[in-house]
User: What shape does this take?
Amino acid sequence: PRVPAGKYLTLEQLRDLVRPSPATLVTVLKWLRSHGVEDCRSVATLDFLECGMAASTAERLLPGAEFHRYVKGQRSVVRSPQPYSVPEELAEHVDFGIGGLHRFPAERSAVSRAWAKEGMESRGQRAAFHLGVMPSVIRKRYNMTKGDIGLLPNNSQACAQFLEQYFHQADLAVFMKLFGSSFAHRTEVDRVVGHQGQGRAGLEASLDVEYIMSTGANISTWVFSNAGRHESQEPFLAWLLLLSNMSALPWVHSVSYGDDEDSLSQVYLQRVNVEFMKAAARGLTVLFASGDDGAGCEEGGRGGNHGPFRSGRAYPDLAALSDNYWVVTNRLPLPWVSGTSASTPVVAGMLALINDRRLQLGQPPLGFLNPAL
Ligand SMILES: *[C@@H]1O[C@H](CO)[C@@H](O)[C@H](O)[C@H]1NC(C)=O
Ligand SMILES: *[C@@H]1O[C@H](CO)[C@@H](O)[C@H](O)[C@H]1NC(C)=O
Ligand SMILES: *[C@@H]1O[C@H](CO)[C@@H](O)[C@H](O)[C@H]1NC(C)=O
Ligand SMILES: *[C@@H]1O[C@H](CO)[C@@H](O)[C@H](O)[C@H]1NC(C)=O
Assistant: This one.
């Protein structure tokens, strides 16, 4: 069903829209129980099940599957080289199928979108033009005045982190001390969902947090820290299921990570798309960095090259400054950080600010942005 503009669903209303029928629940649970599978977790919308079991149980549950452990260097994965089947009476009840059984992690390692320039030559050239982008430059460029800061305690914004990228609160404090004197801001992330490891701060994570909090200044900020990988790439589905399991969420989410579509299975992609639709029905705004060569246009055929051309688009919905940002990471100010990685949290903070004003006026948040654009 179409959700009218601005009339968003609560998590409970969304659950009533997407929850499986009693017949589906009974059929699926009976199938699992008959194989002794009891260790299952669902989400608040009831449309996803995550179950733990031994490989031998999985082989009985999914006839045809034959699990082996494959080892390369330090890495090892459990996979079935054989196709599996599910009992015929289940076919109409199962949507996504069963994830992570067949495909091997891609050789190339997944990357976040931020990158720092190296080499004196490019530094010299750039320095001749300007000293780099910092919050004061962005706020001036986009005509943001001192008054353009968040005022509501109940508005919030978030960025999602993957691939063991962590931010440090101390870096944020140093960043705001160096670059935040001209506007009212917060100096701490209010909530981290998920587990941040002990490691060094990541460039992407530092960049995202520092800049979403500079345009979305004085707005409460969350970080979703997503552990693990999906077939060596970002576990986007796991992050989306987490959103599907939380009733109170920030309205705006910034993601500066990307997957290569052609390396993922169609059923997985479709299920991720369903989760995006669920987020949109709740009024969430989700931004993704397009990648620096245009959406899906990376060199050498990466990123499903054909994708955007096939569907007619090769450019992002929005653009903003993206070159030569200053970032504080592991206590050090680092210049020359570039990418759509940088522009995405900047725009996300602006949208959170617009939401702040809309909420003050009793209007609904922006939600899914594309129709308005
Ligand atoms: C969803 O949240 C509930 C309640 O907090 C929890 O019991 C359940 O395990 C969560 N589901 C998943 C898939 O994490
Ligand atoms: C900049 O913002 C101010 C205050 O909101 C507004 O009056 C002015 O017209 C804006 N200038 C431009 C160039 O948009
Ligand atoms: C910052 O936001 C809080 C609400 O979260 C508000 O009480 C406070 O007045 C704001 N700060 C400024 C300088 O307006
Ligand atoms: C947030 O605060 C504003 C202003 O006090 C209020 O009008 C609005 O209803 C609140 N929104 C939520 C979701 O609590």
Remarks:
- Confidence is low (pLDDT under 50) at residues 119-124, 300-304.
